[in-house]
Each structure stands twice: as C-alpha cells, then as structure tokens.
Amino acid sequence: MGKASYETVDFGVTKYGEKARKFILKGAGGVILEASDYGGKIVRLFTPDAKGELKDVVVGFDSPAGWDNGDPYWGCIIGRYGNRIAAGKFTLDGVEYKLPALNNAPGGIGCNLHGGARGWDAYVWDAEPFVEGDDVGIVFRHVSPDGDEGFPGKVEAKVTYTLTSANVWRVDYEATVDKATPVNMTQHVYFNFKGESGGTIEDHVLTIAASQVTPTDKGQIPTGEIAKVEGTPFDFRKGMRIGERINEANGQLEIGKGYDHNWVLDEGVMAGGKGGLVFAGALECPLNGRKLEVWTTEPCLQVYTANWASYDQRAKGGEHLSFRCGIALETQHAPDSPNKPQWPTTIVRPGETYRTTTEFRFGNA
Ligand code: BGC
User: Fold this and answer.
1) pTM of structure
2) Nearest CA-CA partner of 239 in 194, 208, 193
C-alpha cells in the first residue's frame, strides 16, 4: 500500500474572475483524484483496470474555461437544489418563491435546473486539503446568501471529499440554514471507463438497485407517478448493457433522448426501505474490467447518459466530446420534490443539519 498525499497547483481564473486551485489527491490504495475548488469539479480520476493499470475515467477539462464555455456541470458539486423544479416555482410555508426557469426540454414550460443561472458549481469554494492516517481529502465550504437565485434563506454548505486506502471516494454533504429552504445536493461526475475520449458508454454494464422510476412529462418534470421498471428498458436490477435498450421506441426514452431519469432506490426511504447507506448501483466496463459501486444515504439516483451535452466542448486531450461520452450517477432526492409534498422532503429548517453521504467504491472485475 502507498502513502496518502496531496499536492496543490494553480488552476487558472474562472469567468467570474475568481482564482481557482486544483488538488491532486493520491490515495493509499492507488486511486488518484484531481479536484478543483471551482465548484469541487473533478478534473481527473485514475482507477485500476483488471490488470491494475490506472487510467483517467472522468470527463473534465484542463482549465475553468472548459466548463465556462459550455455545459458547466461536468463533475461538479450541485446546489442548492440539484435537478429540476417545475416552472421555477414552489410554495413554502404559504409563500411562493420564483426562481430562474432557464432549462427547457422541447415541449416543456421551463424549469429551474441545478440551482439556477449561477449555481454552487460556479463558485470557488473555500478548500482545505488534508491527510488523516491513510485517508486524503478536501473540505470545501460555501455560503449561499438569503435570496441567492431566488431561494429563501442563507445556507452554509460543507462538502468533504475523502479518498480511502480501499479506493473509496466518499462525499459527505452538510448544510445549515437560517430560514426554511430546499436543499438537494449532488455530485455530477461523468464516468467513462475507456477514458473521456473513448467514445460512448453504451457498452458499459449498469446495475440499478431500484424497482421503480419517476416518469416525466415532456419538460422532464416528474408527473408524480411512481412506475414499476419491470418489463421496461428501465429495468437494470440485473446488470445490463446501457446500449441494449437505450434506442428502443419508448416515450420516456424519447423525452430524455436516452436515459435521463430518476430511479427510486429499493432500500431507500422513498420506496419504504430502511435507508442508511444503501447500495444504489454499479457500473462496469467488460472491455477492461474497471468497476464502480455507488452507495448512498439518498433515496434516489438520477442516471444521465450525456444525451444533451454540448459536443463543441473539448475534453482534456483536446478532442471534442461525443454523444453519450459519459454517464452521471447522481444520488439525490427526487426531482421537483418542493412541489411534491407526498415525497420525502428536501426542506431544511433552522436548527436542523442536512447530512448525506455517497460513496463511489472503485475496484476491478
Ligand atoms: C440532467 C440533464 C441535464 C444535465 C446537465 C443532468 O443532471 O438530468 O437533463 O442536461 O444534468 O448537465
């Protein structure tokens, strides 16, 4: 086993004029994680294949400009509310709040996506790297003021990345508020176990520990229905090649241009499960044996196969990103929860601490 260590380097300036840094975390188990204080963005992540050979398996860019000139969400921390809020509106304790509704799928009426025009991904966070025994990590902190992007209340957020000697990348989220407000944080890393320029992830085998999904309307807002996956292209309870059914004639797949949906985890609280840290799913590339398990305390998993990405963006190697070049496994509460009172709440109130954990456990087949 190696020794956990880190290095800090400059990462350029963001379009908002903030100076960014990058931290290169070397895990004692071999996995290497490069992350910036610019929204916690994952720049590189090296994991072992079946022979133990390391390769960078995430989509990312060499400088803040890579994110700033296109889809900004590759590999970043999302807040204050990950995923969609219908029409950018919700009512809380009798007051209606209006948020930017800039995102829209064809046929939709617009929605708030990933926190708004400038979400938490677009700020340089306070960042403190650390080594603690065999663990190496970074503590990120960000304060979002009352009224930020239309949301009520100040939020003090803390996100900790920890890379363990067992090749687990753990993400611990915490937030406290001074007024009731929705919080739904996630990590938007995209994996491609062949490397970011390795083409589509359709040959990867995906497992999702969920018997149910939340179907959406044309604007990708959950209709409120919770549907069984059985007998549909959404059944990944047994590992299945992503490309196997992704192009089938199916109304939901047409809306998302592929997979861009929220699964309700069987062991999570939304499905009536016990909750705690539960198995959410796994991803494996049969060509090289790279493997990942996702474990989370969140009730849901949004799986997005990069169907809408802006392919004029150039990845680290300088090549254009391609259709379905990565897959995001976003642990979270269900989309549009502030407008779905029947679902587990995302509202955090003063005196409470929002706390969730997600683990990306890397290994090989
Ligand atoms: C959403 C996609 C969106 C993407 C943006 C995903 O979480 O589900 O619809 O296009 O984020 O990067």
Assistant:
1) 0.98
2) 208
